[in-house]
Amino acid sequence: MKVEFKKDESLHDEIKVEVKSAEQDSTINKLLAYISKFDKQERSLLPIKTSDRIVTIKMNTLIKIEVQATSLTYYTTEEVVKTTGRLYQVLEVLNDDFVQVSRHSIINLNYLESIENGFAGNMIVMLANNLKTDVTRKYLPELEKELGL
Q1: How far apart are alpha carbons 67 and 86 in whole angstroms?
Q2: 68 within 8 A of 46, measured Cβ to Cβ
Q3: CA 11, CA 77: separation in Å to the nearest integer?
Q4: N or C, where is the chain less crowded by C-beta within 10 Å?
Q5: CA-to-CA distance for 83 and 51, rounded, in angstroms?
Q6: Going along the chain, which residue ranges are E strands?
Q7: Where are the alpha helices (DSSP H) in 1-149?
Q8: Which residues face 100 on adjacent strands?
Q9: CA distances from 118 to 122, 126, 143, 147 (A)
C-alpha cells in the first residue's frame, strides 16, 4: 500500500482523501468505511428499538447478532434482545471488535473461545455463554485475517 500527502491550499479546513486501486474489493471497502468513521466519536452504547421500548446495549457486552429473515437477535452477556432490521445496517455501526462470519451472523471477537470443524466444510465458532454459530467458507478468510492467522 502506498500512502502519500499532497498539499492543497484551496481546501482550507477540509481534508480530501482519494483512494486509487485497480478494483474495488473488500479491502478497499473496509478502508473507506474506516476513513469515514475516523472523525466520528465511537459510541459504547447501541440503541435497539423493540416492539415496546428502546433498549441500549453496551457494545462490550454484546457477544453475537443473528438474523432470520428480518428478525434480529442480539445476544449479550446478560440478556437476549429481539427486534427487526438488517444485518448489514447493524455491522455499519459496530466497532472493529465485530466480524461477520456468515450471511446470518456477526460475532464479537472478544468473546471467541475456539473454532472447530463443522459439517460440509464449514467451521463453528464457540463463544462465551455456551453460544455458537457457523462460519461459512466465504467469511472464513476474513475471520482468519482478523485473528492474525
Answers
A1: 7
A2: no
A3: 47
A4: N
A5: 7
A6: 45-49, 54-58, 62-68, 71-76, 80-84, 98-102, 105-108, 112-117, 123-127, 131-135
A7: 26-37, 87-93, 140-147
A8: 106
A9: 5, 11, 16, 19
What are phi and psi for residue 7, nearest 5 degrees? -75, 130
pLDDT tens digits, residue range 31-60? 887 787 776 666 788 889 888 899 999 999
The residues pairing with 45 across neighbouring beta strands, listed in sequence order, are 58
Residue whose cell numbers read 428480518: 70
User: Which residue(s) pair with 75 in the sheet?
Assistant: 64, 80
Amino acid at position 117, single letter? N
Residues in the chain: 149
Q: Which three cell numbers stand for residue 126?
A: 464457540
- Determine phi and psi for 94, rounding to 5 degrees: -80, 160
